[in-house]
């Protein structure tokens, strides 16, 4: 994740790399704050339709997870991070099958029991 | 197999490398292993989320308190603020390590991260104590059982991460930021940032979804 800077770096290069890295963390943080404040604000204010609020929470939550993965875990589409990206996507596929299957089966079961 | 068979046996595991890469990036290998653990943890959390989602029905409330009765926005907002800020301060600690900014800076940012983790845990424990006081205990309903399966599981992870932070701070204070400390801190960073991602799921599904 945090590969050490090359020892051959000059002071200026190291300073530039440092400011690039710190900008990355700050960008991620600002995006995360915005993506957190919007859904909290919507729920606090109220007055929006239930579907709109739930939809916004879900979409912004997923975007925020991607922001965290990119800016804090430093996993993106670059070649040296590809194995981690594939690992994560495959884990998410397994998780989706198990979680969606669980919810599907239990909601279906509940529907059948209510009908009795 | 080509002539150089000793070299092939020297490379362990299922490897087609003809030559042994000595000590080929031990820290990188350890980090890959930790990623595998993190992904298995992701699946555990995901299934607790799925269970929780199936317990959000009047049948599962069993006449007991509902999410709307139990959860309040200010508490969830403060917990979120503490954990989100701690992820940034851990990032500053990582950068202090990466750019050799000295033991003091690393320890300072780790201490700030630990303090924010403690604030988070304090707020969470206060919430659980309040819930227990009003009878919202795990055995009250299926909904509460699944809540106390999911949210304290995350809290237990933050507790483990905090203990790990304390151990790393002691190690760095005594031995400095050496290669071992760097390798361990990289895994702790992964763990800590990962917990903040799980928290996004919790504040979205449990708190915001419950109050909305």
Would you kindly provide a written description of the structure presented here, covering whatever features stand out?
The complex is a heterodimer of chains A (116) and B (212). In chain A, 78% of the residues lie in helices and 0% in strands. By secondary structure, chain A is mainly α. Chain A folds into 2 domains: 1-74; 78-116. The longest helix of chain A has 35 residues, at 11-45. The termini of chain A are far apart. The mean pLDDT of chain A is 90. Chain B is mostly helical and 212 residues long. Chain B is built from 8 helices and no strands. Chains A and B meet through α1, α2 and α3 of A and α2, α5 and α8 of B.
Distance between the termini of chain B: 64 Å
How many separate helices of chain B? 8
- Please describe the biggest sheet of chain A, giving its number of strands, its sense, and whether it closes into a barrel: none
Strand content of chain B: under 5%
Short description:
The complex is a heterodimer of chains A (116) and B (212). With 116 residues, chain A is mainly alpha-helical. Chain A has helices spanning 11-45, 50-71, 82-115.
